[in-house]
Write a structure and sequence with these properties.
The chain has 227 residues and is α/β, with parallel strands linked by helices. It folds into two domains: 68 residues; 154 residues, Rossmann fold, CATH 3.40.50. It has a four-stranded mixed sheet, sandwiched between helices. Helix 1 runs antiparallel to helix 2. It is elongated, with a radius of gyration of 27 Å. It comes from Escherichia coli. Keywords: Membrane, Transmembrane, Transmembrane helix. InterPro entries: P-loop_NTPase, T6SS_TssM-like, TssM1_N. It holds the Pfam family IcmF-related_N. This is Type VI secretion system membrane subunit TssM.
Length: 227
């Protein structure tokens, strides 16, 4: 579309330009002026094309750097996928709220708890909300989401997968995904990453567990709250 507009204006300079009048002057009637206008229009097009090429080269360089990192550190594949998901979700949130202060328009909360403690059920039944962005990979088997932001009328709540609430030494990938999620929140909302934490527990499991398991579970949750 932009190319067609550029060609149209270039044709207009030579076709209608000689008869075009502004302030009772026919600025493009002299041949030299038309060549000057053509040169200026060509320079503008060249500058635009240069900017586009530079942006494309930067994107390619970023992709190559990411591929090198993934070759050295296989876990970075999941970390980069989570980064892309969160960044694209944030762009969707900006459009969804349509507010310059979209980062602070609603309070942000995080719901954490062991796997099977009812986090997702709690949000589904007790918090009317929208999942405003779901990547294509999340619908198949290519990408697993370890956190899902829910956007409601009063708040944004991040539903954290129970595997990320496991002990820090349980799985390196889950620990790094957890640290990455916290780092992303601190980067985007440096003044106050979260307004609060919602903690869920599986009470039957907690009551029937032996003392060692109960202390282990509470210590794990305490560590996550300290993070």
């Amino acid at each position: 579309m932009l190319i067609l507009a550029w060609i149209f204006l270039l044709v207009w300079i030579w076709w209608k330009g000689p008869t075009w009048t502004l302030y009772e002057e026919q600025w493009l009637k002299p041949l030299a002026n038309r060549w000057l206008a053509t040169a200026a229009w060509g320079i503008i097009a060249l500058m635009w094309l240069t900017v586009r090429v530079m942006k494309r080269l930067q994107q390619l360089e970023k992709m190559q750097k990411q591929q090198r990192e993934e070759a050295v550190d296989p876990l970075s594949v999941e970390l980069n996928a989570q980064q892309r998901y969160l960044d694209r979700w944030l762009l969707r949130l900006q459009r969804y709220l349509d507010n310059r202060r979209f980062l602070w328009q609603l309070p942000w909360y995080m719901v954490i708890g062991p796997a099977g403690s009812g986090k997702t059920t709690l949000l589904r039944e007790g918090f009317p909300s929208d999942i405003i962005y779901a990547p294509e990979g999340a619908r198949g088997a290519e990408q697993r989401l370890y956190l899902t932001p829910h956007v409601g009328k009063q708040a944004v709540i991040f539903d954290i997968d129970g595997t990320l609430c496991a002990p820090a030494d349980a799985d390196i990938l889950h620990r790094r995904l957890w640290e990455h999620a916290l780092g992303w929140l601190k980067e985007k909302r440096a003044r106050q990453p979260l307004n609060g934490i919602i903690l869920t527990l599986d009470l039957p499991d907690l009551l029937t567990a032996d003392k060692r398991r109960r202390e282990h579970l509470l210590q794990t949750l305490r560590s996550r709250l300290q993070d």
